[in-house]
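Entry for the shared binder. Reason: the reviewer on the internal report wants the predicted structure included alongside the sequence.
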Amino acid sequence: MIMVGIYTNLGITPLWLAILVNVVLFMGITSRMISASALMTAVPLPPDRGAFMSINSSVQQISGGIASAAAGMIVVQSAAGTILHFDILGYVVIASMVITIRLMYVLNRQVQRNTSQATEPVLQH
């Protein structure tokens, strides 16, 4: 979130700094996606995992399209050629990250609860 805030509020920036910020930003994106994907594969039962991952992929693709369209409505180019409202887009992205963190916490608790129930010994009477 910090890198998104920095990236979307840079203004006119030398190329070397833009490259450096991009590298750090994408390292964070990649590390976040790996842990989220690992958590998501634990949600369905093994026989349902293929179907779940297909639907998950479809939802990701449509979400990316909707996010791109929304970002295109927020960010505009002025008559002088400068980009306007890029900072506002950053704040929207940060807000969506906060919401996602909360949802992933709830999902993680559910996965842990399901895992612990699956590993508990069955008591026979």
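Summary line for the report: The chain has one domain: 2-42+53-113.
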